[in-house]
Specification:
Helix content: 55-70%
Structural class: mainly alpha
Number of helices: 10
Number of strands: 2
Shape: elongated
Largest sheet: 2 strands, antiparallel
Order of helices and strands: EEHHHHHHHHHH
């Protein structure tokens, strides 16, 4: 494979014109994104310990030299995947929560599914596999804790009992994550809007059965039946 120019800003990849042999020059950012996606696939398939840098290079279709030009170690690769997916989830959530009320139906499942569709193996690493890897369990726990904090803030005072509120937040987070993971495996991407609607109605059904009716806003109570 032709190596990157000495400037280090681009690197070739196969499949399009733009470089000798019909290869296309990638920016450093695009190259790293390509390598991270390939690494996520390799790690999700075999786990961190059983995956070598050779395996990642083969998955990406590059030499190991190119891999090491962008990432110093296998641990840096794995950590970068987790950080990237976690940050993308945060950005999508902030984007959704900033929408007008009329457009916010389904924001939690929609934000999570959008990231999972874009990088399914990276999403699986963050929410499933990382917790089993001693080097990265802390990152998985930090993401899980942030998710629970979001759930707690959304529940607010609608579940006054602290123990029930904590339990409900955990169940809601687990429900959303498990639902997205299952839909990735079984669902048709063309029906993602249907998944978002069903997942949201299911979440509202659970939540409203646990919340104190006197503390639930009428608009929120009617939302599942009036949303498009």
């Amino acid at each position: 494979m032709t190596t990157a120019p000495s400037t280090g800003t681009t690197a070739p990849t196969s499949g399009a014109p733009g470089a000798p042999g019909g290869r296309q020059l990638l920016s450093r950012a695009d190259r790293q994104a390509q390598l991270l996606r390939a690494a996520a696939t390799a790690f999700a398939r075999a786990g961190f310990a059983a995956t070598s840098m050779d395996d990642v290079a083969a998955e990406a279709g590059v030499t190991k030299l190119i891999l090491y030009r962008n990432f110093d170690s296998k641990e840096e690769l794995y950590r970068s995947i987790l950080d990237g997916v976690s940050e993308r989830l945060r950005q999508e959530w902030l984007r959704e929560i900033d929408l007008p009320d009329a457009q916010r139906y389904g924001i939690t499942s929609r934000a999570m599914l959008r990231v999972a569709r874009d990088n399914p193996d990276g999403f699986r690493l963050l929410v499933v596999h990382a917790a089993r890897e001693p080097q990265f369990a802390g990152l998985a726990e930090a993401y899980a804790e942030r998710s629970l904090q979001v759930a707690d803030s959304l529940i607010g005072a609608m579940i006054p009992d602290p123990s029930v509120k904590a339990w409900a937040g955990q169940v809601i987070v687990d429900y959303l994550v498990s639902g997205v993971l299952a839909w990735l495996e079984l669902g048709d991407p063309e029906r993602d809007d249907e998944f978002i609607d069903r997942a949201t109605k299911g979440m509202f059904g659970m939540f409203l059965s646990w919340a104190d009716p006197a503390c639930v806003d009428d608009r929120l109570r009617d939302w599942p039946t009036t949303a498009p």
